[in-house]
């Protein structure tokens, strides 16, 4: 130890090394570390939720396609049955109007059970003498086609699944946008560490803190998958 460097000077030297400015710098570093830790957790959570909502969207879109395909199959069979009903009725009507009772009986036996119910109700309207009677059984309210009704039900399910999938996609997009916001916080925090001027550093940390609060608000209020 050099001569003349007494106890008072040592205390002054140590106090100068660990003065208020050093404590403020340490406090800033601690705040930056806390900020980075919170950003890391929030980013991981947002990314996790975005992935889950994307998976849910893909699942629902897949269900929608499956439902729509099933509905198309029922619609095809229903259309074929409707064509069959119309054709057999046309042949029955032709045989009936030409007095071919044997032919009319044959086609009458070929009516589908669903169609026969409407046929019986149509006959009660006295169609051969009543000009206001419906053109045929297919126009009666009693006419039902189970395949076409099933197709409509499957189409409704497909539309509902697609709409829920679209909502899931929008929620996933929100989490992705929140991840971008958190990345901005991370960038500003890292940038603040490059500055030695305390006011500049604190200003950047203030902006980062504000953006982090906004991002955390979104994390809390967004629906969870």
What's the helix and strand layout?
Blueprint (H helix, E strand, L loop, with lengths): L6 H11 L2 H78 L3 H9 L3 H11 L22 H47 L5 H24 L4
Number of domains: 1
Provide the gyration radius in Å.
Answer: 39 Å
Percentage of residues assigned to helices: over 70%
The largest β sheet comes out as:
none
- What's the total number of strands? 0
Shape: rod-shaped
Give the topology string: H per helix, E per strand: HHHHHH
Number of helices: 6
Flag low-confidence runs: 1-8, 10-18
> Helix/strand/pairing class, anyone?
mainly alpha
End-to-end Cα distance:
67 Å
Commentary on this structure:
With 225 residues, this protein is mainly α. The protein has one domain. The protein contains six helices and no strands. It has helices at 7-17, 20-97, 101-109, 113-123, 146-192, 198-221. The longest helix has 78 residues, at 20-97. The two termini are 67 Å apart. Residues 1-8 and 10-18 have low confidence and may be disordered.
Give a brief rundown of this model.
The chain has 6 helices and no strands.
Keywords summarizing the entry:
disordered N terminus, mainly alpha, 6 helices, single chain, 225 residues
């Amino acid at each position: 130890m050099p001569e003349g460097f007494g106890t008072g000077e040592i205390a002054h030297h140590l106090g100068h090394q660990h003065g208020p400015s050093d404590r403020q710098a340490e406090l800033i570093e601690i705040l930056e570390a806390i900020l980075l830790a919170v950003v890391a957790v929030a980013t991981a959570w947002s990314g996790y939720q975005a992935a889950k909502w994307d998976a849910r969207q893909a699942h629902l879109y897949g269900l929608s396609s499956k439902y729509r395909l099933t509905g198309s199959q029922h619609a095809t069979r229903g259309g074929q049955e409707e064509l069959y009903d119309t054709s057999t009725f046309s042949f029955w009507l032709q045989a009936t109007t030409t007095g071919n009772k044997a032919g009319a009986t044959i086609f009458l036996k070929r009516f589908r059970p669903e169609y026969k119910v409407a046929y019986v109700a149509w006959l009660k309207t006295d169609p051969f003498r009543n000009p206001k009677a419906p053109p045929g059984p297919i126009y009666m309210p009693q006419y039902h086609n189970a395949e076409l009704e099933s197709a409509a039900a499957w189409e409704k399910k497909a539309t509902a699944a697609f709409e829920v999938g679209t909502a899931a996609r929008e929620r996933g997009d929100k989490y992705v946008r929140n991840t971008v916001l958190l990345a901005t916080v991370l960038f500003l925090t890292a940038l603040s560490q490059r500055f030695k001027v305390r006011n500049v550093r604190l200003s950047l940390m203030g902006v980062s803190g504000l953006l982090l609060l906004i991002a955390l608000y979104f994390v809390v209020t967004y629906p969870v998958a």
